[in-house]
Structure formats: structure tokens, C-alpha cells
């Protein structure tokens, strides 16, 4: 059961961190600081006023950067490496005491999952930026914020539910990527036209 709880926390926080690392870290830090839920002791690393403060400030910057078309794309490009690495660190913290092999595997899992959710977010945003009106961008950004906070809260309180939700989201992401890949392969080569 502990393995499933740890996997639920790893996947839930990694998916959320791939979309918004700072909101995820701030949420975990505030939950640890104020005892919103009973967290394992390994989450005490987030119960630091400097970590919480930095995460809140960076989340505020991201909140506004994410609402401006093309600025969000630049922000996402800068975070292509930051989010997966941050998610890997959160995943290792969620693991707690473990062997170096287990820590390495969980770090890889967290980083790969975050890279997938980050790529999904970033590509969706590029498509939304192609539309001339800003409202789709604002709506996507607000939905992402709700997603991160919602998934983060579910992961904190109900890690087994977070495991199921995360696996379902990952399956949808894989099916969507497969569909896009097939669509791209069927398109005629413009160089041959």
C-alpha cells in the first residue's frame, strides 16, 4: 500500500509540476507549514519560509506571464528544463528514505512525467497563441491553475485517487500524442508539391 501511495504522490505532483512547478511547490510547502493534511516527514523539506516565499513569488510572476500571448511561450521555453528537474526533486522528496537506485528511478519517473505534462501545456499554448483573440489564452491559463491546485490537493489528501487520476491523464496524453504523430505522418510533404 505504501508503494501505491508513494506512486500516487510522485505521479500527481510530477504532472502538476510539469504544468506549474511553483504553484506545486508552494502548495506542498503551505500544506506542510500549516498542517492542512498529515504529511510524511519527508515533506518537511518544503516547510521552509524561504522555499515557500520563493515559490509564491515565482508563481505570482508565472501567473501574469502566463496570461500574455507569446510571453507565455517564452516562459514555457525557459521552463522546459526547469519543470522536469524540479519535478524530479519533488518526486525524490515524496519518496523519503530510500536506496540510491530507488531515488534515481523515482527522479527519472518524476522528470519524464513532468516533461510530458509540460510539453502538452506548451504545445497547447502555442496553438492558442495562433488565435487573434487573447481570451482563449486567459481561459487556458486559468484552467491550468485550477488543474495544478486541484490535482495538488487531491494528491495531498487522497494519494490513491491521485494515482488513478494521474494514470488516466497520462493515458489520454499518450493517445493524443499518438494521434498527432499519425496525423503528421499522413500529411503530404510540401516539398513534393
Morphology call: globular
Helix share bin: over 70%
SSE class: mainly alpha
> What is the averaged pLDDT score?
88
Terminus-to-terminus distance: 58 Å
Count of helix runs: 7
> Which value, in Å, is the CA radius of gyration?
17 Å
Biggest sheet features: none
Quantity of strands, as a count: 0
Query: Any low-confidence stretches, pLDDT <50, length ≥5?
Result: none
Order of helices and strands: HHHHHHH
Give a short overview.
The chain has one domain (2-192).
Describe this structure in words.
It is globular and about 60 Å long. The chain has one domain. Helix content is 80%, strand content 0%. By secondary structure, the chain is mainly α.
Task: Sum up the structure in keywords.
single chain; 193 residues; mainly alpha; 7 helices; 0% strand; globular
Q: What topology emerges from the helices and strands here?
A:
Blueprint: H1 2-19, H2 21-34, H3 49-65, H4 71-95, H5 100-129, H6 135-157, H7 159-186
Helix pairs in contact: 1-2, 1-4, 1-5, 1-6, 1-7, 2-3, 2-6, 4-5, 5-6, 6-7
Amino acid at each position: 500500500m505504501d508503494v501505491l501511495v508513494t506512486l500516487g504522490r510522485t505521479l500527481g505532483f510530477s504532472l502538476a509540476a510539469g504544468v506549474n512547478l511553483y504553484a506545486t511547490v508552494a502548495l506542498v510547502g503551505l500544506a506542510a507549514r500549516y498542517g492542512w493534511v498529515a504529511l510524511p516527514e519527508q515533506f518537511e523539506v518544503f516547510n521552509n519560509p524561504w522555499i515557500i516565499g520563493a515559490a509564491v513569488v515565482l508563481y505570482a510572476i508565472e501567473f501574469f506571464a502566463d496570461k500574455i500571448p507569446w510571453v507565455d511561450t517564452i516562459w514555457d521555453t525557459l521552463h522546459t528544463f526547469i519543470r522536469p528537474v524540479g519535478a524530479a526533486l519533488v518526486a525524490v522528496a515524496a519518496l523519503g528514505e530510500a536506496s540510491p537506485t530507488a531515488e534515481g528511478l523515482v527522479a527519472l519517473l518524476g522528470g519524464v512525467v513532468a516533461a510530458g505534462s509540460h510539453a502538452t501545456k506548451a504545445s497547447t499554448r502555442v496553438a492558442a497563441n495562433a488565435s487573434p483573440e487573447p481570451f482563449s489564452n486567459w481561459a487556458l491559463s486559468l484552467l491550468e491553475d485550477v488543474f495544478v491546485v486541484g490535482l495538488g490537493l487531491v494528491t495531498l489528501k487522497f494519494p490513491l485517487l491521485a494515482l488513478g487520476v494521474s494514470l488516466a491523464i497520462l493515458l489520454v496524453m499518450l493517445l493524443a500524442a499518438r494521434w498527432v504523430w499519425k496525423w503528421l505522418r499522413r500529411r503530404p510533404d510540401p516539398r513534393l508539391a
